[in-house]
Amino acid sequence: MAQGGMEIDILPCPFCEFSDSDPYFLTQHVELCHPENGTSPFSAIEEPCASAQDLNHSNTYKKDSPVDYTGPVANDDDPLSGYVDCPHGCGEIISTAELSSHLDLHIAEEMAFEDASGGVVSKCESEGEEIDANTDYIHDDIESRFSTKLPKELRNRDNILQPKSSRKGSHRDSKAALGPSEKKKRKSKRKSHDVAGSFLRRLGRSELGPYAHEKQMPSWLRNMLEEGAKVTVSNQIQTDGTLRRVEHVANETSNLIPVLARLCELDETVEQVFLCHPTVRHVFKMPKEGGFCGYRNIQMLVSHIQDTRADGYEQFPGRLPTILRLQDLIEQAWDLGFNSNAQIETGGIKGTRKYIGTSEAQALLFSLGIKCEAGAFGHSLTIVGFEIRKSGSSNLLVFDPMFKTSPAIERLIGNSRARPQDPRCLIKAYRRGPGYLHKHKEFEILKYRTNYAQTHRNISRTFLVLLPFLHLTLSSAARTRKTKMRTLPNIIITGTPGVGKTVHCEQLAQDTGLRHLSINQVVKEHNCHEGYDDTFQSYIVDDDKLLDAIEKDVPKGGYLIDWHACDLFPKSWIDLVVVIRCNSTSILYDRLAARGYSELKLQENLDVEIFDVLLQEARESYDEEIVVELTSENDEDIESNCARIEAWIDSWKKARVESSG
User: Fold this and answer.
1) I need a surface site. Which of 364, 457, 593, 626 has the fewest CB within 10 A?
2) Cα separation of 539 and 551, whole Å?
3) Among 78-82, 85-89, 210-214, 493-497, which stretch is predicted with the lowest mean pLDDT?
4) Could you give the angle at the alpha carbon of 39 between the alpha carbons of 36 and 40, nearest 5°?
């Protein structure tokens, strides 16, 4: 492709059909998927070369198992042939024909993680580059150790892309999920029926996946699904300075669509992008969960229905329905007559790991009175956007439940000031171009039909900034009930040594006019200690002396209190508690080592940070509604954090004036 007098080449892999315009990315593909002598330089551990039989799942299926169905059993003589455990360690069981592409997607994911840590990222070419989206997945455990020593029979070869059409409805989903009365008016077109068309075929592994014949999933997996992903609650400072109490589910990412919009805006090769509603959440699998992608796709659709209060939202109160709940709803839909043949073809899905597809999602929605349309059944994806590039090419933007959101992307959520080093390398994980799409013969489509006028938005380069956001605010009384005598707030900036408390306080003092109160200096200047501890190289603070030294001034307000502990200050003094965090232990270690800390002192501080000791102290000592956690690992974080705190100060002042008036 020629652009501006510059030739951009698409580089092919010499061993398979993979191609990419990024030489660095192509090199990683070759080293990972086609290593010389079976040894990849990206291998973290040495393991004996496993055979295809060793990597295949070991479960067996007995054809004479008692299953209620009509008609012959599909031919599955070779248990789980064609499936292997992902050697990258993500826990997925992958078809051998798709293994090479799956590993390529792990490479794309790893690049996103490198960007988050400030490491080397892919050298995406100059403006006008054609970026192939063959390898755009995000996976859930990039830090897991893995080996890529695969036998030749497991590598992509002989131009094999997909030996069998993936079951996501490929055999039975061609029948719409119709109610009992409608089904009588329509004849089935399934080729899997016998000549007379009077028998149904029990589907097998090629349609239902490697666990097509299991009666119940393992008890440990069921317990994990019942418990669900970890839920944490924290406070966040919004861009307008208000505090919002946020519930975070470990396998869900909210507000990701605006980030994709911003990345597309920063990518100069993108001419126009169409994105779905910004409330759609990215829902991904939990570690070791397995192949429940169909259910996760349904959850993403439900997240839109819930958050926009669109048609049918009353059917999904509270959090997203769990996988086990969705199985119950699908079975209920079958019992009501919606695509009831599927119950015979699958043998039932409740409590199993059998794959589901669009027909199940359609039956579920129809049974709940929610309108939708389905067609072109085959392989499935959750599509959240469509982009048109300046070159005239186009990509789908997708949420893939198999892989989690990378730290580099999470850093951009709600942070309009942060600017990624290379937006194209980050959004690469969400793109699916022709190179990927051509691997599948057909795709299934499930479109939610709603009366909500702005479910889909045309996001042009001049409209990206207009995506709506919803901010929940606390009442003025809640924010100021302890500060009636103060005209300026008191803010504690706390955290483990080395996270950047002083830097934050100094910049905030300069920008806001609040006074920086270093407790370390107060302790030294006023002798508020009981001596010096040589082991930990620090003073033993006398809390009573310290409070006596500051109690005349601090209650009046206007202080940024800088200290690694916060539990001794009276609640009536404090309006906001900011806990600065550094999630990267390597960064924190380097900072503390540069201070000359002893190994004992260094390790103790690392343990305090790892086990959230100071965050828990803050939440136990003050009302949770005023405790905020912020990350500080680079200059962009500091700038963003200070901007948020400054916005909160302005909001606090405004609320103070309104309440006094």
Assistant:
1) 593
2) 21
3) 78-82
4) 90
8 A C-beta contact, residue 243 and residue 233: no
Q: Per-residue DSSP letters for 65-93?
A: -----SSPBP---STTTTEEE-TTSS--E
| CA separation for the pair 425, 121 (Å, rounded) | 8
Known binder of ligand: residue 39? no
Residue 652 tokens, joined: 């606090």
CA distances from 333 to 177, 343, 363 (A): 9, 10, 6
Residue 455 has pLDDT above 50, yes or no: no
- The DSSP call for residue 21 is S
E strand or H helix at 427: helix 423-427
118 or 301, which is more confident? 301
Position 243 scores a pLDDT of 86
Arithmetic mean of pLDDT over the chain = 72
Report phi then psi at 459, rounded to 5: -100, 100
Among 209, 125, 126, 117, smallest CA distance to 167 is for 209
In Å, what is the CA distance from 570 to each residue of 161, 492, 541, 551? 66, 12, 17, 10
Question: Which of 440, 410, 444 minimizes the C-alpha distance to 298?
Answer: 444
Ordered by where they begin, the domains of the chain are 476-660 (3.40.50.300)
Q: What sign has the CA pseudo-torsion 446, 449, 452, 453?
A: positive
Helices (H), 177-236: 180-183, 205-208, 219-227
376, amino acid identity: A
Q: Which of 144, 132, 131 is nearest to 85 (CA)?
A: 144
Run of H or E including 578: strand 576-581
- Region 453-476 average pLDDT: 30
3-state secondary structure (DSSP) of residue 272: strand
Q: The sheet that has 270-276: what strands, in order across it?
A: 431-432, 394-399, 382-389, 270-276, 456-459
Tokens of 275: 């994105």
Q: Which residues pair with 246 in a beta bridge?
A: 234
| Cα four-point dihedral sign 260, 266, 269, 271 | positive
Burial level of 374, CB count in 10 A (0-12/13-18/19+)?
buried
Residue 268: which of 408, 385, 126 has the closest Cα? 126
- Angle of helix 585-594 relative to helix 599-610, nearest 10 degrees? 150
Report whether 280 belongs to an annotated binding site: no
**Interstrand relation of 627-631 and 576-581 (parallel, antiparallel or unpaired):** parallel
CB 605 within 8 A of CB 590: no
User: Is residue 502 part of an annotated ligand binding site?
Assistant: yes
Look-up of token digits 């001049």? 462
Question: Do the annotations mark residue 500 as ligand-binding?
Answer: yes
Q: Which SS3 state, helix, strand or coil, does residue 576 take? A: strand
For 633-661, write each residue's pLDDT tens digit. 999 999 999 999 999 999 999 888 877 66
Q: Please tell me whether 228 is known to bind a ligand.
A: no
